UniProtKB/TrEMBL annotation:
It comes from Tilletia horrida. This is Coatomer subunit epsilon. Its main location: membrane. It comes from the Eukaryota. InterPro entries: Coatomer_esu (IPR006822), TPR-like_helical_dom_sf (IPR011990). One of its GO terms (cellular component) is COPI vesicle coat. One of its GO terms (biological process) is retrograde vesicle-mediated transport, Golgi to endoplasmic reticulum. GO terms for molecular function: structural molecule activity. It is a peripheral membrane protein. Keywords: Cytoplasm, Cytoplasmic vesicle, ER-Golgi transport, Golgi apparatus, Membrane, Protein transport, Transport. It is found in: Cytoplasmic vesicle, COPI-coated vesicle membrane; Golgi apparatus membrane. The lineage of its organism: Eukaryota, Fungi, Dikarya, Basidiomycota, Ustilaginomycotina.
Amino acid sequence: ATQRHHRRAPLASFSQKRQAVGACGADDADDDYAVETLHTLSELLEEAEEAGDESDTVQTIRICNAIIMFKDVDALGALETLAPGLGSAKDRSPRSWADDSLLIQLIEAWLRLSTGGRAAQQAYYVYEELAQHPGMAESKNLISVLIGTAAALAIHPKYAEADKVLADAASLDPSNAHVLANRASLAGRLSSGR
């Protein structure tokens, strides 16, 4: 069978930027247009991100995509569309003057958890290193670090290991709401065998 090789235009063109801005301004009467445009823009944005394209046009499409989601009462989708790119950009600035700062490391680990994949694995290492720090032993701050460690493990479906880490956190504070919520969420995964 003969394979066709399609040559694509640049991932994000000016006309697509114009289309994105137009969809943002669509009123309720144009719901079908906005939904169709959202689908097209989501695919375009995914391709651009995979290719590492962070041009102004892609940023405009990302923002318009989030606005359409927000107008469609999908605030979480809008935040997920905006947060990784914006969070990473904000994260780069402090790192230039405070690379070893504990706060910067925690911010970076949290951002990596929200990104997933290899970045979540790197977040695991940050949380694990903090958990092993002698100053953290038996500290109430250790609970947050253990929750982060468990979240990183759960992202890489290591549910039994994550549950063990959360059990350690629960031994420090059995009534901690974050520990209880994470254990409840994890219990569903453990019971379904996923």
